[in-house]
Design brief:
Structural class: mainly alpha
Radius of gyration: 30 Å
Number of helices: 38
Region (Disordered): 237-257
Distance between the termini: 50 Å
Largest sheet: none
Shape: globular
InterPro entries: TRPC4AP (IPR022162)
Number of strands: 0
Pfam families: DUF3689
GO cellular component, one term: Cul4A-RING E3 ubiquitin ligase complex
GO molecular function, one term: phosphatase binding
């Protein structure tokens, strides 16, 4: 009763109230006694093992779980007993006690300081193969804790100095990485996850069994609130069917009792898919990425998700769409919403810098890509030619095109916009492909993004950043895109709003600034009439071709970052400033740019502050990017400048020779020199 009160009452009130029964039970050793009862059979060495009845195991687990909920510290104490935690996994082989065990394990792992090693679980492979699909989905909830790095949530926020220091300490793979490898070694594991992720709602079985589970175990979900919502829907549907046939009401009620309402089935399936997609997503981002990619393609995860897109993933909200108490349909914690975000994250990690991304299209769309290349008289991308047509999406549209459709219909303030833009951008990432860009341009993506940035004057920083990044990938080196841009941004007023959005936060827009700078540089070197025409007409290119504008961007990009505050998110500002200087170096203008920076410092009455900072940043750049583990192909792909040229430029800028016209030190007066400090990992 105390646990029930805790789960159904408002959590806050519950935390203030005390639970004398569970407290007393634990105080006098009840918890330890239950652990002893459960583990007793494993301690006996006699030939004839003692067998505990399922009901007793169930009761022990329920009491333990309820005590964990109500009394602080119990869960932590159990988590410290490694033998008990591993023992709990062995109880999962029993179908009757599976749910109670799973829920207790999940609670315990949530507070455990040290991540468990999956390979320590006795007979893990046979345990997993004994699960039915429903159990496997529930097991994914537990796996999620064991394969995710503990603090990935704020990855972008950690300074790179701290991360680099941490990496030096951790020489071997982390526990999460070892656990990922353990899972991938279980035969058929990924295949079963793909089946679970792509099965249709109608294929789910065991409905009455599910109702029975709910009755006996109210907390199989995060809390009873979800269950209340489920039950409410069930009752609504039951009432509907009984009013429809009131004369045979007796009959109607019995049939509803045994049949699970459709909306509940859908909810159940959404809960499962959520867990499964999360695990697949983590595996796709891990060390064994290529192996996972191959399996996911082979087991047709992408076409399967494509077939579920309208009916389940992006389904229209029904009138009684399930929402937790006190929440609205669009708040980020409803299962429907979490599923959509998880799905978009999966798409993002699936297509990011990987040639399997073309599986997101169907055969006609792939033919369209080939036709675009043919018409433009450029060679087809190898990855398109090599895509196995038996593994691509089927149906009228591929997954990417469906995503574009919902993206255009998304309300302005929707939290999905960020994830949608990220997913489409990752499709474009890597070496720039004209055909990929044209495919999306033909579908009105550029106009949609500009509408959001300029006409709806989007305010959300995250969404703006994802739109600028996407716009950069979409327009890079593509003269048609700049032409379209000019057609849409056709008044000075619109152009000014666009510039204000860019200037409002360079950390968010610097990738777009980089794209415009690189594109302008390439267009200027081409002798094509069409290019010359766009160069003269396009507001954006004319703006960027002014030396003063490029200098202003360079000055601000260097000024907003410092070695101590560099993160994964803002280090791109440093790389963008380097791109501007590399292009200057190609035209022998490097001394001119450095001299101008020096003059700008004097205008600001603060000589040395920009160049000293830039010197430190570049030294950090060398430490960070010349590390043997660092992948430099991203820098090469995004800029079409060889990594050797990046390295040379940084070396020239850092030269200690004060007579060199390309060395930063030549532009800092002796009195203001401040470049010898070493940065520590504080």
């Amino acid at each position: 009763m105390e646990a029930m009160a805790f789960v159904t009452e408002d959590r806050k009130a519950a935390q203030e109230s005390t639970f004398p029964n569970t407290y007393t039970f634990d105080l006098f050793g009840g918890v330890d006694l239950l652990v002893e009862i459960l583990m007793r059979p494993t301690l006996i060495t006699q030939k004839k093992k003692q067998k505990i009845s399922d009901d007793l195991i169930k009761d022990c687990l329920s009491i333990l779980y309820n005590t964990c909920i109500c009394t602080e510290g119990v869960t932590k104490r159990l988590a410290e007993r490694n033998d008990f935690v591993l023992f709990l996994f062995t109880l999962m082989t029993n179908k009757k006690t599976f749910l109670q065990t799973a829920t207790l394990i999940e609670d315990i792992l949530g507070v455990k300081k040290e991540m468990i090693q999956l390979e320590d679980i006795p007979n893990l492979a046979s345990l997993v193969s004994s699960f039915d699909q429903q159990q496997l989905a529930n097991f994914c909830r537990i796996l999620a804790v064991t394969i995710s790095e503990l603090d990935t949530g704020s990855d972008d926020k950690h300074t790179l100095l701290a991360k680099n220091a941490q990496q030096k300490k951790n020489l071997g793979p982390s526990r999460a990485e070892v656990n990922q490898a353990t899972l991938l070694n279980i035969p058929g594991f990924v295949e079963r996850l793909c089946k679970l992720a792509t099965r249709k709602v109608s294929e789910t079985t065991g409905t009455s069994n599910f109702l029975q589970e709910l009755e006996e175990w109210y907390t199989w979900l995060d809390n009873a609130l979800v269950l209340d919502a489920l039950m409410r829907v069930a009752n609504e549907e039951a009432e509907q069917s009984s009013t429809e046939s009131s004369d045979e009401s007796g009959l109607a009620n019995t049939s509803t009792r045994t049949q699970l309402p459709h909306s509940m089935k859908i909810m159940h399936e959404i809960m499962y898919k959520l867990e499964v997609l999360y695990v697949l997503c983590v595996l796709l981002m891990g060390r064994q990425r290529n192996q996972v990619h191959k399996m996911i393609a082979e087991f047709k995860l992408i076409p399967g998700l494509n077939n579920l897109f309208d009916k389940l993933i992006w389904r229209k909200h029904s009138a009684s769409a399930l929402v937790l108490h006190g929440h609205n349909q669009n708040c980020d914690c409803s299962p429907d919403i979490t599923l959509k975000i998880q799905f978009l994250r999966l798409l993002q990690s699936f297509s990011d810098h990987h040639e399997n991304k073309y599986l997101l299209l169907n055969s006609q769309e792939l033919n369209e890509l080939s036709a675009i290349s043919l018409k433009a008289n450029i060679p087809e991308v190898d990855a398109v030619v090599n895509t196995d047509r038996s593994l691509v999406c089927d149906g009228k549209r591929g997954l990417l095109t469906r995503l574009l459709q919902v993206m255009k219909k998304e309300p302005a303030e929707s939290s999905f916009r960020f994830w949608q833009a990220r997913a489409v951008e990752s499709f474009l990432r890597g070496a720039t492909s004209y055909a990929d860009q044209m495919f999306l341009l033909k579908r009105g993506l550029l106009e949609h993004i500009l509408y959001c940035i300029v006409d709806s004057e989007c305010k959300s920083r995250d969404v703006l950043q994802s739109y600028f990044d996407l716009l950069g990938e979409l327009m890079k080196f593509n003269i048609d895109a700049f032409k379209r841009f000019n057609k849409y941004i056709n008044t000075d007023e619109k152009f000014q709003i666009f510039l204000n959005q860019i200037n409002s936060s360079l950390v968010d827009s610097n990738m777009l600034v980089r794209c415009i700078t690189l594109s302008l540089d390439r267009f200027e070197s081409q002798s094509d009439i069409k290019v010359a025409e766009v160069l003269s007409e396009c507001r954006l290119l004319s703006y960027m071709s002014q030396m003063s504008m490029r200098m202003s961007f360079l000055f601000r990009l260097i000024n907003i970052i410092h070695v101590q505050t560099l993160t994964q998110e803002n280090v791109s500002c440093l790389n963008t400033s380097l791109v501007i200087l590399m292009l200057a170096r190609r035209k022998d203008k490097l001394p001119f740019y450095l001299h101008t920076l020096q003059e700008m410092e004097y205008t600001e009455k603060y000589p040395g502050f920009i160049l000293n900072n830039f010197h430190s940043l570049l030294r950090f750049w060398q430490q960070h990017y010349l590390n043997k583990d660092k992948d430099s192909t991203c820098l090469e792909n995004s800029s079409c400048i060889s990594f050797t040229y990046w390295k040379e430029t940084v070396s020239i800028l850092l030269s200690p020779d004060r007579t060199s016209p390309c060395a930063i030190v030549s532009y800092i007066d002796e009195a203001y020199m401040d470049i010898d400090r070493d940065f520590t990992e504080e």
